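Deliverable D5.2: sample structural annotation.
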Amino acid sequence: MAQRRIGLTGGIATGKSTASRLLEQRHKLPLLDADVFSREALQPASPGAAAVLKRYGEQVAAKDGLINRRALGRIVFNDQAERRWLEALLHPLVRERFDVELERLKAAPVVVLVIPLLFEAGLEAICSETWLVDCDEQQQLLRLMMRDQLSPTEAQARIAAQWPLAQKRELADRVISNRSTNEALAQRLAAALQQSVSP
């Protein structure tokens, strides 16, 4: 039987992390997380970190060769050209990690691939189905401001850096609403796991 690869995506602050945690803890599913792979690609002394430090220098340098991710975020979320440069650096490295990890997990019947920029990066091809964790746009803005201690302007810039939720809803095989409680989200995820995507 073919492996079921669930591409879990959503907008920033729509609840991907909560959904992935529920799938891992309650359903014991292996997770592969693009954000984790992106952070690993910027570890001290890595080629990714060296490229970032060469481009931005002291403004993103932290102690011990670390990248100040908050400072880097301020640059790339306010400059589309810089964001594209960073994505061009990181996306191939992240894709490579997915290939390695999927090979390692090839015997698992179900694998969850948590990819915030799933559609933007064209990674649907490595998934057998795509799930969008969804909420309304006002909820998304308020959650992001609260979570990351951002002003409305800063939060809007981060939301605008991704495709709109309306566009992602059209592309996803399954839309998982996260407009109420975590328990309601858990029930919707459990129901989605019981269903296969129609051919």
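Annotation notes: Strands lie at 4-10, 31-33, 110-114, 129-134, 174-177. The first strand starts at residue 4 and ends at 10.
The annotation will be released with the project's public dataset once the embargo ends.
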